[in-house]
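Q: Given only this backbone (221 positions), what sequence would you predict?
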């Protein structure tokens, strides 16, 4: 039934012009209600991808708006933005090629050199959203993450204080076959901290340990 909820939302969004729908979705991706927020994230991804098919430059403007909302100078916090960026890039190859490096940059420390592209996110809840985005992309566009060196950025999050962040990092590590993390993942198998994983319209209760075990099994398939 949960997946059906998403299908209904996406079908309804198709009835409206993509560009005119996006402002409403921006207000919904930061709502406290988890079901509304996550369905809005999926809806945002589908709508920006549709806009890109119709007018690529208009979609780039939305992507830049995402980036601006994560900038300290914006005055906002950027709730739901990393997730929405990732969902959009899962649904549109062209936008993924152009913007995946920016999502990865939020896992990287700021460098001393001008050419270094770190935009590290410190806020724990934003980190959780970021790791959800990375996990989502590790499933739909693993090649891009590997090519951009994201495999080196994920392992530290396996030690995060936040359980959901640890679990999502484990999911991404498994999807990208990060065999160097096997020892850490084995240590996480006993981690019973609970989380709810949202994935394509389905809310799945799970634990960090379950995701770590699944990651190990995937690496050894």
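A: Predicted residues:
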């Amino acid at each position: 039934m949960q997946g059906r909820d998403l299908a209904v939302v996406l079908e309804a969004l198709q009835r409206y012009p993509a560009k005119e729908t996006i402002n409403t979705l921006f207000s919904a991706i930061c709502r406290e209600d988890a079901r509304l927020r996550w369905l809005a994230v999926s809806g945002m991804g589908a709508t920006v991808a549709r806009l890109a098919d119709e007018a690529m430059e208009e979609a780039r403007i939305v992507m830049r708006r995402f980036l601006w909302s994560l900038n300290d100078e914006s005055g906002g916090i950027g709730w739901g933005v990393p997730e929405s960026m990732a969902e959009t890039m899962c649904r549109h190859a062209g936008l993924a090629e152009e913007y995946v490096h920016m999502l990865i940059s939020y896992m990287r420390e700021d460098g001393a050199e001008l050419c270094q592209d770190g935009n590290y996110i410190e806020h724990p809840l934003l980190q959780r959203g970021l790791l959800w985005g990375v996990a989502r992309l590790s499933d739909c566009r693993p090649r891009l993450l590997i090519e951009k060196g994201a495999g080196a950025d994920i392992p530290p999050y396996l030690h995060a204080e936040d359980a959901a962040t640890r679990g999502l990092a484990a999911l991404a590590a498994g999807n990208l076959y990060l065999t160097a993390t096997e020892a850490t993942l084995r240590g996480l198998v006993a981690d019973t901290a609970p989380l709810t994983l949202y994935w394509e319209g389905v809310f799945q209760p799970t634990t960090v340990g379950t995701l770590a075990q699944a990651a190990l099994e995937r690496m050894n398939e």
